[in-house]
Amino acid sequence: MEKKRKSIKKIIMFWFILTAAIVLIASIALRLSMRAPEGNNTINLTGRVNKDVPIVTENEPISEEPPKKNIYTFLVAGKDKVSDNTDTIMLVRLDIGNKNIRILNIPRDTMIDTDRKSKKINSSYVIGGIEQFEKDVASLTGFYVNRYVLFDIAGVERIIDEIGGVYIDIPRNMNYEDPTQDLYIHLKKGYQHLDGKQAVNLARFRNYPEGDIDRIAMQQKLLIELAKQALKPENVLKIPELVAIVKDNVQTDIDMSEMLWLANEAKNIPLSSIETDIVPGVASTVDNLSYWLPYENALLDLINSRYNPLDSPITVNDISIVEFSANREG
After folding, report:
1. For labelling, which of 33, 42, 155, 182 has a CA lying 20 to 30 Å from the CA of 304?
2. Four-way CATH pick for 71-307: 3.50.50.60, 3.40.50.150, 3.40.50.2300, 3.40.630.190
3. Where are the domains of the chain?
4. Which residues pair with 187 in a beta bridge?
5. Is the model's pTM score more than 0.85?
């Protein structure tokens, strides 16, 4: 009987050690497969934008200014359900060294410097694809991002549901219907739990006194609450599953190993270090169309103080802002 007990103990110990070894090996393999999202995969341009054409000797490579170490930038945008225009546009700066995330919201009606008939930034993607979209955003920020993420409504709904929804205080009753977009928003004022579809509807609601600017403020608040939910221990443990869902439901040039690396690094960033801004400017009407016209100097100051990933300042030679009397400074 004693021998049988010892035999059972040995079997249990063997399987315990084997399981621990498998988990350890899998963890090491996962860690080794992770890598940072360096460079740019889409347009193969990195560093600053400069409208001045450099003078170079034949066959001499043009030197590029590398980004600061441990700082990565991303273009994140949500596509409209009907037109494929980008309804939500954000520049995200991830600073691993200082454990900080900054999000710059770019209003969808922001005017860009282009000869195209449609001069709104939200039409860049549908007109010229992700390549044109990245270049047009760079014309406002002065530098090229490392990676992009494009998401649609269904994908975001699924991701929010996977993390358990979100709790948020809705400042007013929200009622809006648009059958052409299959959009039916009916949300009551007050603190409450929202599932994926309700949270997306909150983000899409735009019937505010200040229009898109108030909408962006609501989206920024929602993002913070979603970050709180995503960083709960039960969701941190689901990082590999969440990464797989993101991969299946968004269009991006971030590969799986980079996603795992980013998720692993982001979980160490405190919520108090997630900050948001909006492109400084003014709402105005040009040729009977509503636009958000950026303030050039204020935008440069904001980029250089909070978003520039390079070692030297972004200058007026790196950005292209169309000036009217409404956004002329000084």
Report:
1. 42
2. 3.40.630.190
3. 71-307
4. 174
5. no
